[in-house]
Design goal:
- This protein is α/β, with parallel strands linked by helices and 381 residues long.
- The chain is built from 14 helices and 14 strands.
């Protein structure tokens, strides 16, 4: 098989942090590991950001503009269109069914480059409400290949008129880290406390971790309400809400109003979550979702039991009373009861975590995920 020259177009990339940037980087690294040439192209959100750089083996090109809307987005779209036509890649992968997808499909009319769209959780809703949403949706329906990371999202695409033969389910892969041990837990807590005072805790304290963008849809407010109930029985327990976003100040005020300061912490964002997983005892996912967040998959691969809002997208990952506990989304009292249950039955928590790790070992490897994309591109040639 001849090496492919590929472009990955994404609206956000480092220093932005989140599922999208993380997945794009991992996919690029895996494709390069298979011998292909990959360039990530993304907007230059700030003029101080370098227009070209490398992250490990991956070259990154930033074009003027952003994805905030208005002139900045139009500038990004025009720049991306010209760049793709000029570079003439052997394949293009666009993250999302938004502006990048519209431009990539338009450029492919001239370059004939096989083009894959990766559907995201909020894309279909965005297409219904965004200024150019209907126009972009119409072009996305012309795509010959749309990838959904879950069967649930694939079904949603079909319901919105995407042809079934154009949809491929490619599950997100996960590298399996070393197993968790009491020594690694102790070392991780020591290292985190040395770098961030918010993460100082005692050796015996139980720590729950939640990771994500601090915005309304993530329902982190449910965690804060639940923690007031948890703290009434386990005052030494800690909740780490890792991330940043528009709801940060609202959450901070809620923490203060419920008298949970020093029990519920907002330590900010982390480029690497490995030590956080090692230091924690359970992972919380309070949002009802259609695509499992990478932090949930990573935490399970690390051996953490999960407590998650029940949704069909999680059926393959959080199996109730096997790899974690499920509760009805929005029921913070049930959430608190589940947390207390894992705190008070540590043996059960360890067993759930071990089962989650064993299940994660059956997921696709990063190499297998990359090969699935290569196979799909070759089918489009």
């Amino acid at each position: 098989m001849a090496p492919l020259r590929l472009a990955l177009a994404t609206p956000q990339f480092w220093p932005h942090i989140g599922d999208g940037p993380t997945h794009v980087l991992r996919l690029a690294e895996s494709l390069i590991g298979l011998g292909h040439s990959v360039t990530i192209v993304t907007p230059q959100w700030k003029r101080t950001w370098p227009p070209q750089m490398w992250i490990g083996p991956v070259p990154v090109v930033r074009l003027r503009g952003n994805a905030r809307g208005g002139w900045g987005t139009l500038r990004w779209m025009y720049g991306l269109a010209g760049w793709l036509k000029e570079q003439r890649f052997g394949g293009v992968i666009a993250l999302g069914l938004k502006h990048e997808a519209y431009v990539a499909l338009g450029a492919a009319r001239k370059t004939h480059a096989p083009t894959i769209l990766i559907a995201g959780e909020d894309d279909l809703g965005w297409q219904r409400t965004a200024t150019l949403g209907r126009r972009i949706a119409k072009r996305c329906h012309e795509a010959r290949a749309v990838v959904a990371p879950t069967v649930e999202l694939a079904n949603s695409l079909k319901e919105r008129g995407f042809a079934g033969e154009c949809i491929t389910v490619i599950r997100r892969s996960m590298a399996i880290p070393p197993p968790r041990t009491p020594k690694l837990r102790e070392d991780a807590r020591f290292a985190l406390a040395a770098t961030n005072y918010d993460l100082v805790t005692t050796a015996n304290a139980r720590v729950a971790l939640a990771v994500g963008r601090l915005e309304t849809g993530q329902r982190f407010g449910d965690l804060v309400r639940a923690w007031r109930i948890v703290a009434a029985r386990h005052s030494e327990a800690r909740l780490w809400l890792v991330g940043d976003g528009p709801e940060r100040e609202t959450l901070y005020q809620q923490i203060s109003d419920l008298d949970q300061r020093f029990r519920v912490l907002l330590p900010g964002t982390f480029d690497c979550l490995e030590e956080l997983f090692q230091a924690s005892d359970m992972l919380l996912a309070p949002a009802a979702i259609t695509v499992p967040p990478l932090a949930l998959l990573e935490g399970q691969a690390a051996g953490l039991p999960a407590i998650a809002a029940d949704s069909s997208a999680l059926d393959a990952h959080v199996v109730h009373e096997q790899t974690g506990l499920l509760y009805a989304a929005g029921d913070f009292k049930a959430l608190a009861a589940a947390v207390n249950r894992l705190i008070e039955q540590p043996g059960m928590a360890v067993a759930y975590g071990a089962a989650a790790r064993a299940a994660a070992e059956q997921w696709p490897t990063p190499e297998e995920e990359a090969r699935a994309y290569v196979d799909l591109i070759q089918q489009l040639q």
